From TrEMBL:
Species per Swiss-Prot/TrEMBL record: Mycolicibacter acidiphilus
Name this polypeptide is given: Sulfotransferase
Top-level taxonomic group: Bacteria
Amino acid sequence: MAAIHFISGLPRSGSTLLAALLRQNPRFSAGMSGPLAGLFGALLHEMSARNEFSVFIDDAKRERVLHGLFESFYADSPADVIFDTSRAWCGWMPAVARLFPESKVIACVRDLPWVVDSIERLIQKNVFSPSSIFNFSAGGTVYTRANGVVGQDGMVGAPYDMLKQACYGAQRDRLLLVQYETLTTAPSRVMNAIYDFIDEPYFPHDFDNVDYDVTEFDERAGTPGLHTVHGQVRAVPRETVLPPDLFNRFVNDAFWRDPANIPADLRVV
């Protein structure tokens, strides 16, 4: 099987952009968030004690089945190195370490107010297309939507908790945090750090012509533009669409920016 690594972290934080850059390397396979993490969790669930036949399934069998899931899913991939993307992988770090001892996890992060702003901006842009993010429900306000996504089980809240668990967990030596702000202002620095992190020879990427588009998926999700990347990698300054009180609620949540609050050996670029 090809070498496998994982892209995880927060939503709206550059994972699709990063995948679009990585896939420029002909040896690499990368893309938007896929179904593998969900299948992984479902298999674990079905092999647990809730299954009356679990008496016939020990941990060795579980490990072989889960490893086989990856082998089967990527059996037709010609890539030498595969990056599977899901916000859930930060929550599966101990299992990933057991299954793939050489694998690494790249977690994309971004200041929380701008993550929430990015989601709200998409919702307001696609005003006539209710989004799967909110179960295709129309209406609500910027406050109800923000509260929904940052909740414990929300689109932002759950990955944020998984990210924290990974950053302070025993497997943090296989974790690299990539800040959206660095990726969009110094992409060469980020890519060099990633190649060094995964111990692969560097490939010269084209930061002026990046392209990735899954229009059909985004339209079916009721959120056109959710995974679209075109053109040059660059930071685009803008005003927030969040009211000041809502924006300020999240300004201190970027724990990875404070050296006093993170382990000294946690890698951040």
